[in-house]
Amino acid sequence: MAITIYGIKNCDTMKKARGWLEEHGVAYEFHDYKASGIDRAHLEAWIDEAGLDTVLNRAGTTFRKLPDADRENLTREKAIALMIDQPSMIKRPVLETKGKLLIGFKPEAYADMFER
């Protein structure tokens, strides 16, 4: 089963998620979207499945530091362009497996996914 976890290497939440996977013997590939970027197709698929408000991290420092003009009247297209340009605005981690998507880290959600 192919498992990919997307995020930023030094993020505390990413460290917790990756630690959980390793402690439970779940093999995965890590995609650091700050180092390697992220493509439009992934963002569109994630937004289609989970919604823009789940994918875009409005509470993060990167988003809050944007000029008002960039934060206001935020359309799907504008948000995708911002996330491609500054992937730190994507909530993390994003985990893809079994044709499913998990955004954010909650140990119980990971347990439901992998311990059945």
UniProtKB/TrEMBL annotation:
List the PROSITE patterns: ARSC
**UniProt xrefs under SUPFAM superfamilies:** Thioredoxin-like (SSF52833)
The similarity annotation says:
Belongs to the ArsC family.
PANTHER family in the record, alphabetically?
A: ARSENATE REDUCTASE, PROTEIN YFFB
What is the name of the protein in this document? ArsC family reductase
Origin organism is Rhizobium pisi
